[in-house]
């Protein structure tokens, strides 16, 4: 077997790296007389086959490993013996001895790898196969045929052989940054080559001569080579380098098609060869996926995926201290901004961004922001501010078309949830997440809940559902007119368990020929909306022991009032699909405490409802009184 080594500063798909060495390895008890000291000639340089140039001084070689065997001929070229590597270790130079037979007095020719099927063949009629399918679970380079020639006797009675590579070697460095394949487990890598309409054979059966390295194909060959991983898949968390041998038949201008497959995605791109291939050369393939204009990404259902983005919705609890003495204040708001800036969401919707906006915006140095409408300057009248804020990355995201709309209905007066102290409503932004990929984003802050009952006989509920319908009608009309997807995000102050969201949002949008989904329902509720007019499903960090609430198994199964819905227009060019959703308690926890309750109702991780339970757990306290809802989307076409 052969492992490969590299001295470039990259992560390699091998267990360990070795420096090139020309030191002979000891025979470990075997007489040195008759030994063959096999030295692999390192390629003179490396060349870039596709993409941006890579420094050709990065030395890369192939090393002998334990268990390797070579076939050796005498000067006649008709008598062959098998020699096996002796000693432990991996290096570019190793010693080989005849296996169970008398060694040649004057060995002349050799080849690797030894094959029993070649034992009766002459030095000029050896047969080999460069496989088109190669499993890489053992990190072993396959199809790396070499031929060797004795150069001189050694001082201890052995012979030194210099081995040369029969074929070319491709060094493929995969960087999945900025694509859905990032952090996925690699399952296969396929390289195909074509010239016009015809495939270029880079694998297959052949015969070769160990005298001079000449070789001839014995079949039509295969125009692609696929590396596979079944049990030892590497992760595409950072740059990953793989190697493959291939016939040196590629010409400058030939078209490479490179396909990278993970558990959930397949990426494919094409690029023309920058050079003609030769034996004994290593060719670089810098596969930085998102740099290739021809890149196409597909999900496991075969839908074309063009990329992904992540967004968050958070109530920053920024009312002035005269109204909200327990809020995060200046320092806490700055901490929230620092955390969001570090996490790097593509865009963020915030609500209650009043008194401490400057601290929030100053901390978010990587973001642009929408209109700030001011703080609450009076507690005795309606203030002309909605407290909404929208932030988007300075690099990679653009936002236009800010539209600000106030709700027609509100209830609660100046003190009841500040519902009529501020001009609650929603905003519409046109967000470009990538070239040609435009999404309508709606951010909102709705009326609070109070009173008795979960029907519209409760004036608080009536105001909330009126606002939801107003937002729904606007979004639906825009989606049908613009024919592009939409995201609704923000503090709705609503729960499926106490508001008829399905009746007033989900069903009407669907009846208009659109699709709408809640990522929390998709990922944490098994696709089933919670039943209306039932006990609230509380995350652990917001449970207070109320008998009307159910304590959920974790901070993800529980429902929060911060929502995110996404809408697709079926015949639109761009489609959205949520790929993850979480209540981000971890990053926004300021402190923790032990919470203990008895006689409470609990929902376990399987969805079973357990009554009269005693529980004790670590409860997270956030900087604000909300934790953000964070959703990642992929967009397809």
TrEMBL record:
Q: Which InterPro entries match?
A: Endo/exonu/phosph_ase_sf, Mfa-like_1, Mfa-like_1_N
Q: Where is the signal peptide?
A: 1-26
Kindly give the Gene3D superfamilies that the UniProt entry links to this protein. Endonuclease/exonuclease/phosphatase (3.60.10.10), Fimbrillin-like (2.60.40.2620)
Q: Which UniProt keywords apply?
A: Signal
Respond yes or no to whether keyword Transmembrane is given for this record: no
Q: What Pfam families would the database entry show? A: Mfa_like_1
Q: What is this protein called?
A: Endonuclease/exonuclease/phosphatase domain-containing protein
